[in-house]
Specification:
The complex is a heterodimer of chains A (209) and B (556).
Chain A: H1 25-33, H2 45-58, H3 71-80, E1 86-88, H4 94-113, H5 122-134, H6 148-164, H7 168-173, H8 204-208
Helix pairs in contact in A: 4-5, 4-6, 5-6
Chain B: H1 10-14, E1 22-24, E2 32-34, E3 44-49, H2 53-64, E4 69-72, H3 80-83, E5 100-103, H4 140-144, H5 154-167, E6 171-172, E7 187-188, H6 194-206, E8 211-212, H7 250-256, E9 260-262, E10 266-272, E11 278-285, E12 288-299, H8 302-312, E13 334-337, E14 340-344, E15 359-361, H9 363-366, E16 379-383, H10 388-399, H11 404-410, E17 416-423, E18 432-439, E19 445-450, H12 455-474, E20 478-483, E21 486-490, E22 516-518, H13 533-552
Parallel strand pairs in B: 3-4, 3-12, 4-9, 5-19, 6-7, 12-22
Antiparallel strand pairs in B: 1-2, 8-15, 10-11, 11-12, 13-21, 14-17, 14-20, 15-16, 16-17, 18-19
Classes of the chains: A mainly alpha (209), B alpha/beta (556).
The structure holds flavin-adenine dinucleotide (FAD) and iron/sulfur cluster.
């Protein structure tokens, strides 16, 4: 897996619409409040290191001097005990699931490579995550009954992407229109674009063709 | 008691808004409308628990007929124009985020997937698809040979569908390809977006009909609602009021007719008196428990919370919960299979523009004779337009993708299109809501839900995935991805023909307690292959008229 991201919409920034009718006051307030990520309150220092490493592998951002912060919002949600509405009968409550899951990922790293997850090279971290997803674990007992794939996909990855893909930089890199109220869109086609949308994107393999 | 979720609207989440003789004016940024208030110690004619499709419509009907009504909702009373942001994470405040325990072979995802919390209920974030049942589905058992018959005639429902479509100003096509002839939709159909045209092209290639989806968002101004601006964020709340949710249609009517609404008011128990009849409800509001007396109690809290409240109201006389002498409360819970196929195109689609499902196909709801049909029931499917975080969740949930691979796949967001079904599942007694040993922040036992597909359900969604893949291929898509999920809730307290097989009669009156009623999606005996809100609204309008007539005869 290459670690370069080629941005099909280079130069497009949803935030350039901040002072236009695409943004309303409440959306500005929400995005402004998100600029300062909250301090860690829920996870221990050790868990925090594993969590940050996990977020970095789930959404690597090597091209950014200041990566979009993800871990602080997971910590904040767990601190507030904001639920999702669902607790699978095979899973413990969210707070316990996160603690158990992070510890188990770390345990797998130690058994396989003798090093905590956070200190492993990216390829090795990827190998661990793939093993978790396949549930082909060197140390299955470390999970204490927590379903590994369900934790990785439904708890960890879903939460991580739900935080990353509401960030303006993430919206911009996929060419999404971003905030759109009170002004929405007039031209509904894929090739007929409103002037306040991202111009047509460019994908590297299209140029190879 | 439930933690605040939003950053933009603490006001609505922290303290009740509908107090002191006034309620929020939903068409303003900070205005009010007058509201009649009722005394707690004087019995009102009707207490209604839950202000979604069932509760809002019923409150309107009863108040307009001159009855005194107090309508409770556990969630906030929003003003969309100033409270709803263009942000997926912020708008999670619209959902029922308190945990339910989900088990069975195919556990259901709750929260954003099927449950709202707030005045207007799940319609503040519904996707506005407004389809009628196929007439034969009201007689599934006798006409089509599966499940059960409704205790209601399709012609009566047809009349109320028309009423619901007028009340919600549905925008739809001039002629609809399936089912018996119907009158014109109140508003003209919306222009179909590119994601919808993918469905249209695929349908034409395969020789099946398609239609612009009848939608509950206006295509021209209506009252204080401006026309839809195609911002595509319907699932996280419409901040322009184009969407004809309960919050901007029936709720203002109910208030104008004299109904009182109590927001941020969680009903914990229904009380019964020595004669076994309901006497009122105990509810939590403003930091404490209170009691409201009532001559009739109606539960409209949807398929999980309705059974939960009835079960949580168990007492000496009714040890298994109210209206549950026959053990039917909580049973026959249904979902819609919500399986999807996604495809990549070699050009941009930009599915974020417009409501998410602008084109639909009901072919498999009406075609009974195709040799490939190997299931009972039906499914419809629609074009899709998930917002980025929603779609990323589908990607990681169904593939486990992570890393640069995930970012690169998401970078093709604008080139994706998808088709997703609303697939009928069979009512099964063991798919049910019970109480868990754990309690929530109010001290009330949580709901525990068990759900498993049956073989017929599986054959149905597998058929749909084969068909939708063919259709996307015919439309020029490639690189297919399948995903599995569920949508909507139906049943859980079904109405029926006799106390042995159901919780209520056709009027929503519980068989066991004559002044305890149910009016919401939990009444549905079958799920049908279409989204349920229009049916729930039509059924509530029917029940409302019926209750008013019964009251005139002194039978309420
Ligand atoms: C994301 C999404 C998209 C959807 N899209 C569509 C669509 O396109 N078309 C369609 O037809 N349907 C759609 N639906 C489904 C539709 O919204 C629901 O089927 C419908 O709203 C259910 O109506 P109801 O009255 O039974 O319950 P609801 O509308 O859910 O109302 C129940 C209300 O009861 C309140 N409540 C619950 N318990 C208590 C209590 N103890 N005390 C006080 N209040 C309580 C809740 O807060 C809630 O507001 C969608 C649903 C979701 C979640
Ligand atoms: S697309 Fe239309 S209905 Fe949906 S949120 Fe926007 S204005 Fe409202």
């Amino acid at each position: 897996m290459s670690d370069d991201f080629s941005d099909p919409y280079e130069g497009y920034d949803v935030l350039s619409k901040w002072d236009t009718p695409s943004f309303n006051d409440q959306t500005r307030r929400v995005l402004a409040a998100r600029r300062t990520p909250p301090a860690r309150r829920f996870f221990t220092q050790e868990e925090w290191r594993t969590l940050q490493a996990l977020c970095d592998r789930a959404i690597p951002q090597p091209e950014r001097a200041e990566p979009v912060p993800i871990a602080p919002w997971i910590d904040a949600d767990l601190h507030a005990d904001r639920g999702t509405g669902t607790r699978y009968a095979t899973m413990p409550a969210a707070r316990t699931a996160w603690r158990q899951g992070l510890a188990a990922i770390d345990a797998e790293a130690l058994v396989r490579f003798g090093t905590p997850f956070a200190d492993l090279a990216p390829e090795r971290q990827d190998a661990i995550l793939t093993a978790v997803d396949d549930e082909s674990l060197a140390d299955p007992y470390a999970w204490e009954g927590l379903p590994a794939r369900r934790f990785l996909r439904d708890t960890a990855l879903k939460t991580i992407v739900s935080i990353y893909y509401v960030h303006p930089q993430a919206m911009s890199e996929i060419g999404y229109g971003g905030p759109a109220s009170p002004r929405g869109y007039l031209r509904l086609g894929g090739d007929r674009l409103d002037p306040w949308e991202a111009p047509q994107g460019h994908w590297p393999e299209d140029e190879d063709r | 008691m439930t933690p605040d979720v939003g950053l933009a609207s603490h006001g609505a989440e922290e303290a009740p808004r509908a107090t002191a003789g006034r309620a929020p004016d939903v068409f303003s940024r900070e205005g009010w409308v007058p509201m009649r208030e009722h005394c707690r110690d004087e019995a009102v004619d009707f207490v209604i628990v839950g202000a979604g499709c069932g509760g809002s419509v019923l409150a309107t009907k009863l108040a307009e007929a001159g009855h005194s009504v107090v309508l409770f909702d556990a969630g906030p009373f929003w003003r969309p124009l100033s409270d709803f942001a263009s942000d997926e994470r912020e708008q999670e405040k619209l959902y029922w985020l308190d945990e339910r325990i989900s088990g069975g072979d195919d556990p259901i995802e709750f929260g954003a997937n099927n449950s709202g919390r707030g005045v207007g209920g799940s319609t503040t974030h519904f996707q506005m698809v407004s389809l009628r049942f196929r007439p034969e589905w009201f007689k599934s058992r006798s006409a089509l040979g599966y499940a059960v018959d409704w205790p209601v005639d399709w012609k009566e429902m047809w009349h109320y569908y028309a009423e619901a479509e007028r009340a919600m100003s549905i925008s739809g096509p001039i002629s609809y390809p399936w089912g018996p002839k119907r009158g014109r939709y109140p508003y003209r159909a919306h222009e179909v977006n590119e994601a919808g045209l993918v469905l249209a092209r695929g349908a034409e290639a395969l020789g099946v009909d398609w239609a612009p989806t009848p939608l509950a968002t206006v295509s021209a101004p209506h009252g204080k609602s401006p026309p839809c601006v195609y911002r595509g964020m319907c699932k996280i709340g419409c901040s322009t009021n184009a969407k004809q949710s309960m919050l901007v249609t029936y709720i203002p009517r109910a208030l104008a007719a004299g109904a009182e609404i109590r927001d941020l008011a969680m009903v914990g128990h229904i009380e019964t008196g020595p004669d076994g009849r309901a006497t009122g409800v105990e509810y939590h509001r403003d930091g404490g428990w209170h009691f409201q007396k009532a001559r009739n109690v109606v539960v409209s809290a949807y398929s999980i919370e309705t059974p939960r409240l009835l079960l949580n109201s168990a007492c000496g006389r009714y040890p298994h919960g109210l209206a549950n002498g026959n053990g039917q409360v909580g049973r026959h819970l249904m979902v819609h299979a919500n399986h999807a196929v996604w495809a990549e195109f070699d050009r941009e689609i930009r599915w974020y523009k417009g409501p998410p499902s602008m084109a639909c196909c009901e072919h498999w709801n009406y075609d009974d004779d195709d040799p490939s049909r190997d299931f009972h029931g039906g499914y419809s499917f629609m074009s899709q337009g998930p917002l980025p975080s929603d779609f990323a969740g589908t990607l990681v949930g169904s593939t486990g993708a992570f890393g640069m691979d995930l970012r690169e796949r998401m970078a093709r967001y604008n080139r994706m299109a998808g088709l997703k079904i609303v697939g009928e599942t069979m009512p099964q007694a063991e798919n049910r809501v019970t109480l868990s040993d754990e309690t929530d922040a109010f001290g009330l036992p949580r709901a525990s839900v068990s759900f498993s597909y049956c073989d017929n359900d599986r054959r149905l969604y597998e058929h749909s995935q084969r068909f939708m893949t063919r259709m996307l291929e015919a439309a020029g898509g490639g690189n297919f991805l399948e995903s599995a999920s569920t949508a909507h809730l139906m049943g859980g307290c079904r109405m029926g023909h006799s106390p042995e097989d159901s919780v209520t009669d056709a009027d929503g009156r519980s068989w066991e307690i004559s002044n305890l009623w149910i009016c919401d999606g939990s009444l549905m005996p079958t799920a049908g292959g279409v989204n349920p809100a229009l049916t729930i609204v039509a059924n509530a309008a029917r029940i409302g008229d019926r209750m008013v007539r019964l009251a005139k005869r002194g039978e309420v």
